[in-house]
Design brief:
This protein is an alpha/beta fold. It has 2 domains: about 5-190, Spore Coat Polysaccharide Biosynthesis Protein SpsA, Chain A, CATH 3.90.550; about 205-265. Helices cover about 20% and strands about 30% of the residues. It is built from 7 helices and 19 strands. The chain has helices at about 35-45, 60-70, 85-90, 95, 150-155, 165-175, 195-205; strands spanning about 5-10, 30, 35, 55-60, 75, 100-105, 110, 125-135, 140-150, 180-185, 185-190, 210, 215, 220-225, 230, 235-240, 245, 250-260, 265. The radius of gyration is 19 Å and the shape is globular. The mean pLDDT is about 95.
């Protein structure tokens, strides 16, 4: 059967503000790699790459997403407000052209084996959701882990207005006995809050320090992720310093995210 992939990257990331005031959530770096690039790598490992088989939607600060993706995927820029997970796919129906859809949230941090079981033995009828054992228990004993597989007949019914997959496909499929949960044995974080975003960075760094080769570090690092062109002269512990960020010699940051020279998001642990 014919299947394509859609990476959902249109969201505003309101819970991540002020980090997303000038950067789309999908382009926030985790382990010095944009979340969107991590998602594109995941779907590429499952066989979906290039604008014929892979699409990315964008809305909030969409020009940044468009420039970042370039020719790697079909692009769908939503006017006005984001259309939601279902509406964004619905707007792509002419490109989808009757295919089933593997949908992945750009803000899903997945670490571990590639979820090839999402496609293995699929009959084209059931809705599949990648699930991590709870809590919270959203689907039986599992919580959604950022990826779903949608049958072609249900994709064809999606609206191109504001709608989400939970209400339009997942829950109706669950009630109809058409929902399967594919267990994921790796690590999943949705990175939707500063706390989870920091946790994803520390996990990506292996709970050590990860420093871009172009960064300048003369201070002390303890479980830190330091981006390209950043400068760290002070001491940081469990901290993400974004590309171009600066930590002065008299600063001591703990459980925080530094953007630029003076934006600091502190995390309560």
């Amino acid at each position: 059967m014919r299947v394509c992939a859609v990476v959902l990257a249109a969201g505003e990331g309101r819970r991540l503000r002020p980090l997303t005031a000038g950067t789309p959530k999908a382009l926030c770096p985790v382990g010095n790699v944009a979340l969107l690039d991590r998602a594109l790598d995941r779907v590429a490992a499952l066989g979906f790459a290039g604008p014929a088989d892979l699409a990315v939607n964008a809305c909030y600060l969409g020009e940044q997403v468009v420039a970042h993706v370039g020719g790697r995927a079909q692009l769908s820029v939503e006017p006005g407000e984001p259309l939601g997970t279902a509406g964004g796919i619905g707007r792509l129906r002419p490109w989808i052209d009757g295919r089933a859809v593997l949908a992945m949230n750009a803000d899903a941090y997945l670490a571990g084996p590639d979820p090839t079981a999402m496609l293995d033995g699929w009959d084209g009828r059931t809705v599949r959701i990648l699930g991590r054992p709870g809590p919270p228990d959203e689907f039986g004993a599992f919580r959604f882990a950022g990826m779903s597989l949608l049958p072609a007949d249900l994709v064809a019914q999606l609206p191109d207005g504001v709608a989400d997959l939970v209400r339009t496909i997942w829950r109706p499929a669950e009630r109809a006995g058409r929902l399967e949960v594919v267990p994921f044995d790796g690590t999943y974080l949705d990175t939707g809050t500063p706390k989870d975003y920091l946790a994803a960075n520390l996990h990506a760094a292996g709970y050590r320090s990860l420093v871009d080769p172009t960064a300048e570090v003369t201070g002390k690092l303890d479980e830190a992720v330091v981006g390209a062109g950043a400068r760290v002269a002070g001491s940081v512990s469990r901290v993400v310093v974004w590309p171009g960020g600066v930590v002065e010699a008299d600063e001591h940051l703990v459980d925080a995210i530094r953007v630029g020279t003076d934006l600091t998001v502190r995390i309560s642990v």
